[in-house]
Structure formats: C-alpha cells, structure tokens
Prior knowledge:
CATH architecture of the largest domain: 3-Layer(aba) Sandwich
Distance between the termini: 15 Å
Number of strands: 9
CATH topology of the largest domain: Rossmann fold
Mean pLDDT: 97
Bound molecules: phosphoric acid mono(formamide)ester, norvaline
Shape: globular
Radius of gyration: 19 Å
Amino acid sequence: MKHFINLKDIPAKDLRKIITDAKKRKRQRKKLSNLEVDKGSPLKGKLLIQMFEKSSLRTRLSFYLAIKQLGGSTLTLRPDELHLSKGGESIQDTAKILSNFGNAFMLRTSKDKKLEEFKKYLSIPIINGLSPSSHPTQILSDIFTVEEIKNKPISKLNITWIGDSNNVLNSLIAASIKFSFKLSIGCPTKYQPSKIIMKYIKNNNNKIRILHDPKKAAKGADVIFSDKVISMNDKVNKSKKLSQFKKFKINKSLMSFAKKNCIFLHCLPRGKEVEEDVFLSKKSKVWQQALNRVHVQKSILLYCFGKLR
Ligand code: CP
Ligand code: NVA
C-alpha cells in the first residue's frame, strides 16, 4: 500500500511507472464507453471514499470514473455532514472508520496538516486531491498530456508557467525535479514561490528559472501553463492582486514569443488570466488535459494498491 500526497516524496521511477501504465490503459480502452470496466477489473470490490473540503468538478468526476473503470466503486462524503468537521469526532477515530469501511481515501483539503494527520491513522492509502500547498494528481496528469501531445519525453521540452506561485505551480516544480525538465516561471516579483519552495529548488535542481518578465518566460516555450490568479481560499485583496498580474495575462501577443507549435494548458477553472482567443484556440489543449485526469488517476489508484503492472 502506498500514499499519494506529494510528488516530491514519491520516487521518480514510480511516477514514470504511473505514466507508462496510464498510456497503456488509455490505449487499451479506446473503444470502451465511460462506465465500462477495464479488462481484468483490477480493483473489483474496492471502495474509494472521497471528501472535498473545497469545491471541485474535475477531480470529483475523474476519480469517480477512474475507480469505476477499474471495477470498484466510490462514495463521496460531505465534510459538513461528518462529526469530524464540527469537532465532534477526532481524525483518529474517523480514520479508523474510513479504513474499516473503505479501501482508499481521496481528500481535498484546506489544511496540509490534515493529510499528514489522516495518514498517521489510516490503514488504507490516502490521495491528495488538492491542498493549499500542492495538487499532485493534476500535475502528474499534465505531464502525461504534454508527452501525449508532443510525443516526446517531457525532459526534452521547455515548460513555462505564467501566473501565481500557488499549489499547482508547487507540484509543477516538484515534477520538474523528478522528471528533469526545464521550467521557466513568469510571475510578479511579489508573487514568487515561498522561501521553502525556493530552498527546495536550490537544493535539487538547476533547470528552474524565475523571471519577472512574462515575455522572457514565454520565449522558446513548448508548453505554457497557467492557473487562476486567485485560488480557492486565497485571503488577499482580490482586485489589488489581479491588477498586479495585468502584465502576465496570456494573450496572442505573449504566445507569439513561444515556439510556433507551443500548446496552452490550464488545470481549470479559469479566471481572467487568459484571453478567450488563446483559451479557445487550437493551441489550447485544456479539454484533453481535463479528460486525461481519469487515465492517470486510475494508474495512481493502482500504484496506491500496489497493483501497477
Ligand atoms: N483542476 C481541478 O482540480 O479542477 P476541480 O477543482 O474542478 O476539481
Ligand atoms: N490553484 C487553484 C487550483 C484549482 C484546481 C486553487 O487552488 O484554487
């Protein structure tokens, strides 16, 4: 049994194995419809319990399909309906019940510490479905999408992030270290990665550059990633922050600094950080990106259950 909490704590060879498995599985079920089960039904009889402390559309749907396609089932708990959220039951006791009734637990949380607390008491795998500091299932799936579209290992590509230094970027930074790809980050000086992340970069990698000019960051990119300037629960002066990102808006002119065949990716939901004529252009692969979450999360589930082929 393995947990899936942060990319930085998972060996690179395991992350690669997950992507390879997802490629194979996606290819093999081309003719199957959404709810048809993969051959061999590898997670038959298994229950994935999901809980979202923050909103979700894609993660919720993609984990639903992922476990179903592996032959298992899922149940989504509402945190406001549990004793836990009202202080009426401990994480320890909640974790014991989850472990007795279910086989894996996917948690989207507003507190990183909660993932660690649950991990301590669960005897089933826990998967991080987004926390304030990371979004590992999203980024692993995005690596898959980049390689699928570019038909090359990501280590051979120039990846650019333009936007806020948030949870999604933290996972992209961890991925850059694990998969050894060049990452240019374009963000305002005030919004560069936290000290902890800067230290992690310094200690592990020399392929990451932080630039405060979006054009320089976009130059020569094979892929440009972005995300909302204001994340869920971001306690900031929203209009002030948005105005500080004005120069970092992804528009056609900024895309023209990248390679001709550069693609645009965004985990969604979107805000005003990208112009419609980029977001809806041929270069934008955001719908394919969202759908791939299903395939990669299936292989993440199999990894957690110790069942990767
Ligand atoms: N990208 C992503 O995680 O989307 P949701 O918040 O809708 O799950
Ligand atoms: N950075 C965004 C990602 C949403 C999927 C947030 O945390 O709100």
